[in-house]
Amino acid sequence: MPLTTAGRPSSGKAGEGESSATIPAMARKRSVRPRSEQLVFPFELPVGDIVLDEGARLEVVDQPTTTHGGKLTRVVVRDAALNVRDERYLEAWRKVRAVRASVA
Fold first, then answer.
1. 9: which DSSP letter?
2. How confident is the model over 44-73, as pLDDT tens digits?
3. DSSP 3-state of 83
4. What is the domain-level CATH number for residue 64?
């Protein structure tokens, strides 16, 4: 006995709530992240890259270094809007959103 879209057996009579249209496959959702943004580990940030952190665009000024046995990464950044240098300590195993200097 053929099954309907609800999984119940059909009676075989046409017009009793059975639709002839097929159900389309669910489309896979894609990320809306722009191509210039990438997820990278903090210790892979070269000088000149821009880190996107909590709505701020921070430019990497100095080469990142690791501390505490490689668990933390120290990154010296400059906020372009405020023209302020700052040190950020990021967890080394968590990726950050960055715009590569070659793309920016």
1. B
2. 999 999 999 888 899 999 999 999 999 999
3. coil
4. 2.30.30.30
Please indicate, yes or no, if residue 28 is contained in any of the structural domains. Answer: no
Report if residue 8 sits inside a domain: no
Q: Are 74 and 57 in contact (CB under 8 A)?
A: no
Q: What is the mean pLDDT of residues 8-31?
A: 58
Burial (CB count within 10 angstroms: exposed 0-12, middle 13-18, buried 19+), residue 72: middle
Q: What CA–CA distance (Å, rounded) separates 28 from 30?
A: 6
- Give the C-alpha separation, 53 to 6, whole Å: 47
Taking the mean position of all CA atoms in its chain, how far away is CA 89? 21
DSSP reduced 3-state for 44? helix
How far apart are alpha carbons 41 and 91 in whole angstroms? 9
Spatial distance between the Cα atoms of 16 and 91, rounded to a whole number of angstroms: 61
